[in-house]
Amino acid sequence: MSGFDEKMRETFINNLCQKYPFIECKTIGESLCGRGIRCLKIGSSNDPVLFASAFHGMEWLTSLLILIFANQISEAYHKNSDISGIKIKESLKQHGLMLVPCVNPDGVEVSINGAQTAGPYESLINQIMDNKPTTSWQANARGVDINHNFNANWYELHNLEAENGISGPAPTRYGGPFPESEPEAKALVNLCQNVNFRYVVAFHSQGEEIYWEYGKNTPEISKTIGQQMASLSGYTLSAPKGLAIGGGFKDWFIEKFAKPGFTVEIGKGKNPLPLSDINKIYPQLKDMLLYCVAI
């Protein structure tokens, strides 16, 4: 086993929820292959922050990152203790935290354990990959990039994809036949329409960068928050380019709600980052994650 796959993730979540009964766990939707998209809530329902990760198959390390954080703050909540001087229980009772550890569970399984994990989509994936290893798979089970599937400048991005030779199912960067065509994207859209999030953070890998703006609805406070996130993490505040502009979750959230949204590209190296990298990444990002919850 070469990554943080479904079995490991579900075991982690189940153990966490059994140990800390105050964590609310629900399923907000299902992937194409019927895998549940899980959501955890810690603390108040009042204007929570959302952390969402593993939009892309081979970026599964992002799931482990936010689950380790969930475990640490749950322990502090249970013990009524501080982390880095922040009173966790007091903070979470004011504004809670919700986490979607794996937006794209099918893509993660395909990347780690192969096309056979995609059930009826196995032959499509093998055709797309020309029967080569699926380690670099980013999309969902039918070759749609979830982070190109949100309705933020989708049509312009779709044309740009076509100009770059991406006009159908692919390992990455195909935004689908229409905005929110994929159940994984729709699950997050529905969640955000039903919960009054004060802002959202999407986790990807890699590059040690933080993206904070999208279009005219970006709030003024976003840059200030982003600068503090960069300061605490040592990451660079950046702007995406080319095919990375539009279609993404944080882009859609900013455009739809005119609230702050951020993308954090964790770690540095070649995707998929190895499991061992979490030993460096988590300590580097812990105070930034705490800040995101506490502000």
Strand and helix layout:
Elements: H1 6-19, E1 24-30, E2 36-42, E3 49-53, H2 61-79, E4 82-83, E5 86-87, H3 88-94, E6 97-100, H4 105-113, H5 122-129, H6 154-163, H7 183-194, E7 199-205, E8 209-211, H8 221-233, E9 236-238, H9 249-257, E10 261-266, H10 278-294
Parallel strand pairs: 3-6, 3-7, 7-10, 8-9
Antiparallel strand pairs: 1-2, 2-6, 4-5, 8-10
Strand order of the largest sheet: 1-2-6-3-7-10-8-9
Query: What is the helix/strand order?
Result: HEEEHEEHEHHHHEEHEHEH
Structural class: alpha/beta
Query: How can the largest sheet be summarized?
Result: 8 strands, mixed
End-to-end Cα distance, whole Å, is: 38 Å
Q: Percent range for helical residues?
A: 40-55%
Poorly predicted tracts of residues: none
For the CA atoms, what is the radius of gyration? 18 Å
Enumerate how many helices there are, as a single number: 10
Approximately what portion of the residues adopt beta-strand conformation? 15-25%
- The number of E-state strands comes to 10
